[in-house]
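WARN no homologs supplied; continuing
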Amino acid sequence: MPDVATRSTVQRVTDLEAWAFRTGKDLADIKETLHDLPKIIREEVMTYTAPMFEEVMNRMATKEDLSALSTKVDGLEGKVDNLDAKVDSLEVKMDARMDSFEGRMKSMEGRMESFEGRMESFEGRMESVEGKLDLILAKLD
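OK structure emitted
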């Protein structure tokens, strides 16, 4: 039988059928054909599946690959935990700064209210002085 690996599957099946079911042969030839048939089928299956298994084996991850990946993931988890701690620390600092800022703002609001009170008092005095000046100017005319 010619080299099985070099022909198309359809041609190989056709040749296999022609070889396996030859007509005009005696019973001994048929028995030999039936005896060789499992070997031929096995070769056919191996020819078809070997490249697929080779491809699977080439792409399959090894224990070492998985172990290296696991180590990388563990390292990333450590970095993420470290980042979480830093973010938590920043949140605490920002909360403290916001509280301090809010305290300053309230203090400034209190000062502004005190200033506004003084301004109103000053405006009242100015109006009183203006009123007295108007009286003095009226008496002088």
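Residues 113 and 140 are 40 Å apart (CA to CA).
OK
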